[in-house]
Every structure is written in structure tokens, then in C-alpha cells.
């Protein structure tokens, strides 16, 4: 393989092999060429090949097996997620017939910080609930979301968090309203180490971050959230 920049050789090799997998040259559970074969094929040293394999492993294309080589992983079709004013995780999963869970990792009550006050239009000293929620399907983690709620709008929220299964179910059943998405900001970024562990991905693999503001049907801001999402497990459709 010829290139003017040796620093991208491993990227070119990885992209070539991924293309081969996509085209069916290497199928699920099939072994890809050995390190020695790849070194000869691309006329590079073992270090470059190992970098290429490490990249493919991090991106979820192959799994190395000690002493046996690398095998193509099962190719998982990304889940389509509709992003609209009425988006709910549970409804998105149910519409596709996918089993899902939502787990409350932690919660706390405290005084709103500057960013929280600005987004939720709160007075200084106002108190909020902060929740960390992990959502999964088929026991595979999909996202971790930090959600901030004004305490004044959700009195005694803590009494409804036992046996948590859905935040929006609490909104509807206990507080009798359904939030409406006002805006979302979507960007790709690298995960924090904590999120990488929760999502079961290397910290070098980018995630999709969605910062959202939800309004009460009456118009006031009611929920501010930041979701960190596995990009390899999702594809988004935005409805207008």
C-alpha cells in the first residue's frame, strides 16, 4: 500500500478490511487474514497492522481471540430513533418491537447551578432534582442521560423513584402532563471514562451527545437533559 503519510497507513488498512466485511468478502464469525498475511499484503510492519486491528476492534467490527486470530463480529443494524417534539425512548423501542429497560443510576436534590438556572429559567437559589439514567435494549447499553428537573414542578419526586422504569411514565401518571421538546443540540464527542465504561465502549470511540430542553405543555421549561449515546447503535430520523 502506497501513501505519502505513514501515520495513516493503519487507517487505510482498517478501512480496506471494513469495506471487505461490508461487501461480504469476510462474513460473520469468519477469520480475517493473519497479521503476517496483512504485513505481506500491504508491505508494512507488524506495528502498523496491529494498529489497524485495534481500530477495527474498537469500532466493533472484529474480536481478537488469543492465539487464533481476529473474527468478524455479528453486524448489528443500528436502531432508528425518531427525534421530534414528542420523542419518548419507550415509544421508539415499542414501535420497533424491541425489548428495553431504563435504569436509574443515581439521583440527588440540590441548588441549581448557573447553566441549569439559565436553561430552566429558574431564580437564584432554586432547587432541582438531578437524575442519571441508563437506557438499554436486549441488555446492551444504548445511552446515559443526565436530567435536571425543577423541584417546584415535581414535588416529592423521590417518592416515585422506587422501582424506576420510565421517567416519562412518572411525568404522565404522577404529574399528569407530557413534556414537549423545545430544542436539541446534537454533536459528536469523545466519552468521559465513566460513560465509556457504562456504555461498554473504548474511550477513544466517539459518541453522539444530545443536549435537550423540554417544555411543559403550557410553555415553561420543565426538563434539561444531556444524553450520551452509542453512535454505532443508533441512527436518527428528525421529524419536522
From TrEMBL:
CDD domains: WHTH_GntR. Keywords: DNA-binding, Transcription, Transcription regulation. The keyword DNA-binding applies. SUPFAM superfamilies: Chorismate lyase-like, Winged helix' DNA-binding domain. Residues 7-75 form the HTH gntR-type domain. It holds the Pfam family UTRA. Transmembrane segments: none annotated. Gene3D superfamilies: Chorismate lyase-like, Winged helix-like DNA-binding domain superfamily/Winged helix DNA-binding domain. This is Phosphonate metabolism transcriptional regulator PhnF. It comes from Caldalkalibacillus horti. The lineage of its organism: Bacteria, Bacillati, Bacillota, Bacilli, Bacillales.
